[in-house]
Design brief:
Chain lengths: 291, 296
């Protein structure tokens, strides 16, 4: 059916693209609708589920909130643990992002703009890091951080390894950004008497701006969503939001509506961040894929 | 100059050495000992841990599950992703909103998505079972996640929900670089829309598809979060992955030697796959594109 309708159109029309713009096949809208239902369905169900009582959920799992119940959300928002988890997530994500951006840019700078003997081998060390799945190192990492460094249950104890694992991708993304900056700019600055450090801070940082935002967003989202490493390293009040959601879900397994409310509220920060940074994330990911 | 290079790279190298390289080496070391986490590392057992991991039915099953997920992810998401990306690439209303919506599951933490799906999939009281019941299909008594025959497929459905959007978005980004003139030229020559896509657009999308498949493979081999939340590897180890196996051995049972051996094996499998893929499939892309030009 699609093929038939599509072949007919362009032939007699001089500007096929414009023609297509005006008459989009209904099938396209149908597929789009199915896609939206599949994608958003579970998320909307969870949000609406938070506005129902457990009795409502049990009596009619597929129904709407009737009446709307606010108590589940109020309970979560007045639960001190929720805010503690959110604070932990924010601090760890910010520490991770700051280290990734600063150290990543510092390392990418000589790797892209200096000429020295071990440049490519040094770069390959970081590239090889892309192939180390974090899962593989996670048990020794847990022992090193808790026993050797005594840093379990601290913000830094989680942020440091997370930053370390995010560095390879960061350097791989940033290096071409810095390489693309014309060397004349640097040379002009040197002639004017600027030092290496001044050039780095005054010129490289602003010129690499878009790349820095991309790697920053990736690091932040990665840290915010992380589960395995926090699961091993953090207990009690030091836990992050994803761990809080998992705990809440197993502790209150009978309270489905409460779990939905807690989970829905935990979604909000990532959603807001995503909606504001969406184009960056997509740009960064497709840049990474192309590389 | 050398001092500057060292000064600039030192923080990154120190972090990397301390939290990536050192634990990797430790994993190899642990794998050669029978160590329960107490006292000094003395019981050297050579390759015994490797033998016991590789002859462990649960681990072999886990390896099978990982390979199933690698293959199923590509087999399901590649055609679906291409078809949807091609449709969304056409001029239509609400395009911007659609592209945002499609990406929502990917942005959610795997844990949060897992908790939501766990609730939806509850036997009897969950919405999925009740909707199925309404159209006359009786869900399994133990629920889809609690029945060994269905559990892995159910995890696969949830993974598709979580990651299809990423495939679509990446393919859409790849489509941006396919020149429109080719499309138009083919259509003027009388090719149908589907013919144009099949013979011109999809082949030009090749590099994006191959790189996506690579990322998907690597991700599938390391799968942990979603499985841990949905099933903890059960029922009856029906959904264990290599990662849940090694975490279970390492944290629940303190079998650090076994966990170490399992993680080295996981690493070797991932590395081998990556190298083979690089050698035979991605090589075409690396040769044909100048790395500097490929970036924007």
């Amino acid at each position: 059916m699609t093929a038939a309708t599509m072949t007919a159109a362009p032939r007699e029309d001089a500007t096929p693209t414009r023609r297509r713009r005006r008459r989009t096949n209904p099938l396209v809208y149908f597929v789009a609708l199915v896609l939206v239902a599949f994608t958003l369905g579970p998320v909307l169900y969870a949000i609406l589920g938070g506005f129902r009582t457990n009795a409502q959920l049990a009596a009619n799992p597929a129904g709407m909130p009737d009446p709307f119940v606010w108590s589940n959300y109020v309970n979560v928002l007045t639960d001190a643990r929720f805010w503690t988890y959110a604070l932990n997530s924010s601090v760890v994500a910010l520490l991770t992002t700051a280290m990734v951006v600063v150290f990543g840019l510092m390392a990418a700078y000589p790797l892209s703009r200096y000429h020295f003997k071990f440049r490519e081998p040094l770069y390959m060390i970081f590239v090889a890091g892309l192939l180390f799945p974090a899962t593989v190192a996670v048990i020794p990492l847990f022992i090193i951080i808790s026993k050797d460094l005594g840093m379990s249950n601290t913000w830094w104890g989680l942020a440091l390894p997370q930053a370390a694992f995010a560095l390879p991708m960061t350097i791989v993304i940033l290096r071409p950004f810095l390489q693309a900056i014309p060397s004349e700019i640097e040379e002009a600055a040197f002639i004017d008497g600027a030092s290496r450090l001044q050039v780095f801070i005054r010129m490289m940082v602003p010129l690499a701006g878009p790349g820095l935002v991309t790697v920053g967003v990736l690091a932040f989202v990665g840290s915010w969503n992380a589960y395995l490493l926090p699961l091993l390293l953090l207990q009690g009040n030091m836990r992050t939001l994803p761990l809080g959601v998992a705990d809440y879900s197993s502790e209150h397994s009978a309270d489905t509506a409460g779990v939905f409310a807690f989970t829905s509220l935990a979604m909000i920060p990532a959603m807001i961040f995503f909606l504001t940074m969406q184009r960056r994330i997509v740009g960064g990911l497709s840049g990474a894929v192309k590389g | 100059m050398a001092i500057e290079v060292i000064a600039f790279t030192a923080p990154a190298l120190a972090l990397f050495a301390m939290f990536v390289v050192w634990p990797m080496l430790k994993a190899i070391q642990f794998s050669l000992f029978k160590w329960k986490g107490f006292g000094p590392l003395v019981d050297f057992v050579g390759l015994k841990n490797y033998v016991s991991v590789l002859s462990n039915d649960v681990f072999i099953g886990a390896l099978g599950h990982n390979l199933f997920i690698v293959v199923a992810s590509i087999a399901i998401q590649l055609p679906l992703g291409i078809a949807i990306a091609l449709l969304l690439n056409r001029k239509m209303r609400f395009q911007g909103i659609l592209r945002t919506v499609v990406f929502v599951p990917y942005v959610l933490a795997e844990v949060i998505a897992g908790v939501v799906w766990f609730q939806l999939l509850q036997p009897k009281y969950g919405v999925i079972d009740s909707v199925l019941a309404a159209i006359g299909i009786q869900g399994p008594a133990q629920g889809f996640l609690g029945t060994p025959e269905y559990a892995l497929w159910t995890v696969m459905v949830v993974l598709t929900w979580k990651y299809l959007g990423l495939a679509i978005i990446l393919f859409l980004a790849g489509l941006q670089s396919v020149p429109q003139e080719l499309d138009e030229a083919a259509q003027i020559d009388g090719a149908s829309w589907w013919q144009t896509q099949w013979h011109i657009t999809i082949p030009l999308l090749g590099p994006t598809l191959r790189t996506w498949a690579f990322l998907s493979m690597v991700g599938s081999l390391q799968l942990f979060d979603m499985v841990w939340i949905l099933t903890k590897g059960g029922p009856a180890n029906a959904t264990t992955t290599m990662a849940t196996f090694l975490i279970n051995e390492g944290t629940k049972r303190s079998n650090y030697g076994i966990a170490g051996a399992a993680s080295v094996i996981l690493f070797v499998i991932a590395l081998t796959m990556a190298l083979l893929y690089q050698r035979f499939i991605l090589r075409r892309d690396n040769e044909s594109t100048d790395p500097k030009k490929a970036r924007r």
